[in-house]
From TrEMBL, chains A, B, C, D:
Catalytic activity entry: 4-amino-5-aminomethyl-2-methylpyrimidine + H2O = 4-amino-5-hydroxymethyl-2-methylpyrimidine + NH4(+); thiamine + H2O = 5-(2-hydroxyethyl)-4-methylthiazole + 4-amino-5-hydroxymethyl-2-methylpyrimidine + H(+)
Keyword terms of this UniProt record: Hydrolase, Thiamine biosynthesis
Signal sequence bounds: none
Name the record gives this protein: Aminopyrimidine aminohydrolase
EC number: 3.5.99.2
UniProt record similarity statement: Belongs to the TenA family.
Gene: tenA
Keyword field contains Acyltransferase: no
Residue span, Thiaminase-2/PQQC domain: 28-230
Pathway: Cofactor biosynthesis; thiamine diphosphate biosynthesis
Length: 236, 236, 236, 236
């Protein structure tokens, strides 16, 4: 795909941050992820609903593992305040986001019981396994970098689609999904995550670790991309 | 010490539970912990306030590590509901309990800054290190057993002292501490913890693992006791 | 596939063991793994060499993660002797097996540098991620059960093919692979692993945990099977 | 204690290394550790043998936990070669060093059974708990820094005492202990550990992380010192 396609979608809040250095070190991989055909299919409403349902079921499993990774961030934090930030994210996922996800999925005809019984796709296992492995084997910075591809990617996609006049609003069943990530609560979460990454990177040698962290980040981005790709065709 | 001293203080809620089997397997160790001279010094108000202040400062560090252990319980849980229970405890400690602890300690002349700067005692390190090591090396059942000595012990102590006519109420600076653990919020937390232990023990072979789990539990109890003992004399 | 195809290939050493209970609880999944078309292609020499090379490259990455999992088994052991058993396996993999693997792969035209630079397949990530996640989240028994599908499966396959008169020996480039797993060093490793699982299962409530452990085992078997399936067609 | 007491004992091999930066950041703590009265009591043979026996029993438990920490280093390594280095240390401790330790202790009248049954001292728990906690919560660099206080300290002590004309050789029951750490096998182990720390520090932002790593290192040194101090008086 052509990474020059379309205007720059870099969110303001990442400019000059440590996250920007990671993203800039893997420009093609990043654009392949945030401008993926699956995303474009949501933007113009042409995505097959069966494909979106399969994605939602895997996304439920992803959320559970995402919460487990942030629980490890609590364990790996060095101060009370740092622990609190991650604990709030864990509680937010398990109390608020999960309820929203269940209710949203119900609108797509997916019951909670169905979602809980659904088996993980290989792509979900590969991605979640990677994040949790890096989270345990590395330090808090490795963990936050591994999670940042998802955290910022969804925020950037949401914002880019919401700002793009070509995005179909009327009658597009995917526009409410776009809004979740474009709206203030998620954008705020993303901004706080980006600024926290700056703090932890400063304290734990982020710049000196850029070669390794870029590899880690690029792998996370490629696993996100593989998740979209499988979502389009094979994932059940 | 004589474990026959005083009436039976077994909380109703543990009767017939898996926790009761652990407690009954280590009766002398348990009584030595819940009827420790440090505890009796709080009951009759004779405890040296300097000793109590030292205890409070270490207890702050204990709470942080306790929250880290419950964060590992989130990571080690097998279902969404199980994750939520532990996540609520982590959030409860870091948001509610910690604020109460800071405010309570302020009443004893200890500022938050002072507490955060205070170095851990050997006994705190030994106990917290033991819990976190068992939490990572074992499964969710090992983790919950390691934490149960503290969870139930403080609830049993609070209840026993609140119900004991010999406990000094008027002018006893420690009676508010007793109330925290005797009152409904903590008693409810304890009951839920005990019932959760039953569920996890049933699923993960608790009865068949009793010899190992009893050793683990007895060690946790002995480290709690050592914490009281050091609190009485040397801990700073 | 028809699981009645061919004679019973159960190794003698697993009869009556805890491992046999796991294997018997998932008969179709197990047969689908050990009699997989990829395996039959090695038995009769019809497997595409390009497919075998792709498998060997992923198998290198698998071995590294397998060694990491046994390193966690050292960490999670409860006694000096138990630690030694796992440490010997880690050292055996990294010193002996890896050298053999490199030399064997060189015979297939794969240099060590090429193998080290090769990216992991999704199926490798999914399987290794699963094993390491269960290894960290669970106890030593969870860990050993997760590893047992590979340990015994390869030994059973090697033995079955070596004993099967239909297996092509002359001019079959895969027969040396069969021999590695049929020969005494690996068979001995397998027997010791099976007997160790008995010991740890007895101590850590294996029988009472059968429902959960069977799920864990069946997932590991299905990820092994997916690894063969991808090996046949898409894995690079 | 006066850190100017006696000549400089800095081993040649650490000059200009990352380890030297850690050691130089905590000069008083370091000297308090390597010139501890317990050490001087071994140098001149005046140490109470009962105290040395108590130390040996705790040292056995320390070795087990030290091997567990290096097993985590295998898990946390990023390359095959890096994994091998730690795996060789784990195997070396469990196969070679432990046999030497058992045989050495037998010379002091301590049977292996006695050592295995002996309970851990608080100081052992505090130190081992700290190392394992940092090993799991941090990355490979945190882990190696936590272990370096022991690795280099014992090598520096051994070398310093072996080179010091004041050290009693004839009739000093502790001189063989000094030799173990002064002799080439241990000195080689130490040199390789120091050079490995340089490599990992370069890759994982060691210099930028000096404030945090110095705190970690200083804590490890203080826990080593507390171990000597308890060894002199109370440890059983």
């Amino acid at each position: 795909m052509n990474i020059q396609t379309g205007p720059d979608t870099t969110p303001e809040c990442i400019k000059g941050t440590f996250f920007a250095r990671l993203r800039n070190a893997a420009p093609a991989a990043w654009q392949g992820y945030v401008r993926h055909p699956f995303v474009r299919g949501m933007a113009d409403g042409t995505l097959d609903p069966a494909r979106f349902r399969a994605f939602l079921m895997q996304d439920y499993l992803y959320l559970l593992n995402y919460a487990r990774a942030y629980a490890l961030a609590v364990y790996k934090s060095d101060s009370f305040e740092e622990m609190r930030e991650s604990a709030d994210i864990v509680a937010g996922i398990l109390n608020t986001e999960m309820a929203m996800h269940f209710s949203y999925c119900e609108g797509w005809g997916l019951s909670r019981a169905e979602m809980e019984a659904h088996p993980p796709a290989q792509e979900l296992r590969a991605y979640a396994g990677f994040i949790l492995d890096r989270a345990q084997a590395g330090d808090l910075l490795d963990l936050l970098v591994a999670l940042s591809a998802c955290l910022v990617g969804y925020g950037e996609i949401g914002l880019a689609l919401a700002n793009d006049p070509a995005t179909v609003r009327e009658g597009n069943p995917y526009f409410s999904w776009v809004s979740v990530y474009a709206d203030e609560p998620y954008q705020d979460l993303m901004r706080r995550g980006v600024s926290r990454l700056d703090i932890v990177a400063a304290r734990r040698g982020g710049v000196a670790r850029l070669p390794e962290l870029t590899r880690l980040f690029t792998t996370a981005v490629s696993l996100e991309t593989a998740f979209w790709t499988a979502g389009q065709t094979e994932m059940t």
